[in-house]
Amino acid sequence: MVTQFQKFLEKNELSDNTVISYVWTVNNYFLFYGIINKSNLLAYKSWLIENFKPGTVNLRLQALNKFLEFTSKHSLKMRFVKVHHKSYLENVISDADYRFFKTQLRKEGLMDWYFIVWFLTSTGARISELLQIKVEHVKDGHLDIYTKSGTIRRLHIPKILRENAMHWLKHERKSHGYIFQNCNGERLTGRTIARYLKLYAKRYGLNTKVIYPHSFRHRFAKNFLDKFNDIALLADLMGHKSIETTRIYLRRTASEQQTIVDTVITW
Prior knowledge:
- The protein has about 270 residues and is mainly alpha-helical.
- Helices cover about 60% and strands about 5% of the residues.
- The protein folds into 2 domains: about 1-75, Orthogonal Bundle (DNA polymerase, domain 1); about 95-260, hpI Integrase, Chain A, CATH 1.10.443.
- It contains 14 helices and 2 strands, in the order H-H-H-H-H-H-H-H-E-E-H-H-H-H-H-H.
- It is globular, with a radius of gyration of 21 Å.
């Protein structure tokens, strides 16, 4: 049944990461409970709440609800837990740490990783989008991403990154195809990138909690608004369906709030 569920998800063109997450969740449920019924589902939900943050819990519940739809058990679908939104951004790499991280990678000659960090932070790409970038896209200066809703989002590659990346690709003798590959010539995976980023962050004495692929997308948004305060344009660049999603970047990080408070409040 789980195999059929996976094929169903793939047929509906869900992203690879979503399919992996949904299938993992269903398998994890069956590891605890062999039968799907209301009491077992609620017990599993309670276990999730005790062990994970609300956002993660809801992702798992979403996966199970999708499976319940697939198996025509609509009446067993579960309600999501309430997510309490904070008045500050959390676990976002600072601009100083981003620049330091990038510099250290370059010093060690880890150019693939240097450009992975640079591309993530200068394009606002999701990790799945980063892995779609080819040499041809760098030459063109953009990658057009087709969404499930039928719209096209353009991922722009800024001039300074474009020029430096082309110089690196020429040195690496890469004239076509995906730019981020492993030693076997296969595309890197999101999990591999996330793992190595934390490994290098630990090596350089950085807080590993703020070093993960999506953190650099957050930094892109923060830096963009600092330089060009157009939230509507930022929403388009990031591919947000609603501008309300983008408004989070108008908030400061917890460390930024502390710095401002320490500086401003002298009475």
